[in-house]
Specification:
binds 3,4-dihydroxybenzoic acid; 296 residues; 10 helices; globular; Protocatechuate 4,5-dioxygenase, Chain B; 11 strands; binds fe (iii) ion
């Protein structure tokens, strides 16, 4: 069976792409932020995932205000990047895992979700920046991705509870897939930020801390706020926390925190990265360690 090994939760600010292109990772402004990815990269090098399932929001590259699916799942053989307006260097086209995508879609529809299914989909900075942060030398050969877009842009948005339920259903579908995939789940965006309007520049460390503190062991706590309350607490774009909530759902009941970084500001955003390991991966790792010890 396929195995979900863990979750990477990260900001996806486009300016990160500019910093990478300039090689500015060690500049005083950027260093505290990029340093947060060292444990992530170590862990990825160890667990060697073969699939990344990325919960994100499309920023007008595929879907605009005239046509906005609440949930959209990529089922394409490959995903090309394009410039949705930030002028970033193009990110290499990423391979898809259409048979896994369709297995997820079928199980979701069976369990009462009605996602849009995208056999053609472009990926924007909300997918490419997290991949670039996770694998600065380029995504490993053989890595395949399943993008899952959540509408965090045009109201009405799905509730936090609905996003958590979606993630849980995706996690169950992934874990019941007959294959040997090692799957890392990603949730991208956030944390608190607001890019426009009267509250432009709004950041709320108290709410961000609440999210980071509860996400690993008690993600249901994040569903106590309505979408409008989340907008008030996190900012109009901080509501991207919905992507994190969905991704957390896909990790199962128990997840273990391996690392966390919170840094304000990166661009207009309270930036954060969190790495969680699933119970299954931890138990497997311990079993491996035990058998190694028995052999020694
Ligand atoms: C910024 C943050 C985002 O989430 C985004 O999609 C675009 C810009 C920012 O802080 O600049
Ligand atoms: Fe965003």
């Amino acid at each position: 069976m396929a195995e979900v090994v863990g979750g990477l939760f990260t900001s996806h600010v486009p300016a990160i792409g500019g910093a990478i292109a300039r090689g500015a990772q060690n500049d005083p402004y950027w260093k505290p932020f990029f340093d947060g990815y060292a444990p992530v990269r170590e862990w990825l090098a160890e667990v060697k995932p073969t699939v990344a399932v990325v919960f994100y929001n499309d920023h007008g590259l595929n879907f605009f205000l005239d046509c906005m699916p609440t949930f959209a799942i990529g089922a394409a053989p490959s995903y090309a990047n394009d410039d949705e307006g930030w002028g970033l260097q193009r990110f290499p086209t990423q391979a898809g895992a259409p048979e896994l995508s369709w297995a997820v879609i079928e199980q979701l529809v069976e369990s009462g979700f009605d996602p849009a299914t995208c056999q053609s989909l472009k990926i924007d900075h909300a997918v490419t920046i997290p991949l670039a942060l996770a694998w600065p030398e380029g995504t490993p050969a053989g890595l395949r991705i399943v993008p899952i877009a959540i509408n965090t842009v045009q109201h009405p948005l799905p509730s936090a509870a609905r996003c958590l339920a979606l993630g849980r259903a995706v996690g169950e579908a992934l874990a019941s897939f007959a294959g040997d995939e090692r799957i890392v789940v990603m949730g991208t965006g956030g944390l608190s930020h607001q890019l426009d309007g009267e509250r432009a520049g709004f950041i709320n460390p108290d709410y961000d801390r609440f999210c980071l503190d509860h996400l690993p062991a008690d993600p249901d706590a994040l569903t106590r706020h309505s979408v409008h309350e989340i907008v008030e607490l996190a900012g109009t774009q901080g509501v991207e926390i919905l992507n994190w909530i969905a991704a957390r759902g896909a990790l199962g009941a128990t997840a273990h925190e391996l690392s966390r970084t919170y840094h304000v500001p990166i661009s207009n955003t309270a930036a954060a990265v969190m790495l969680l390991e699933t119970e299954a991966a931890r138990a497997g790792g311990k079993a491996e360690a035990r058998s190694e010890a028995a052999l020694a």
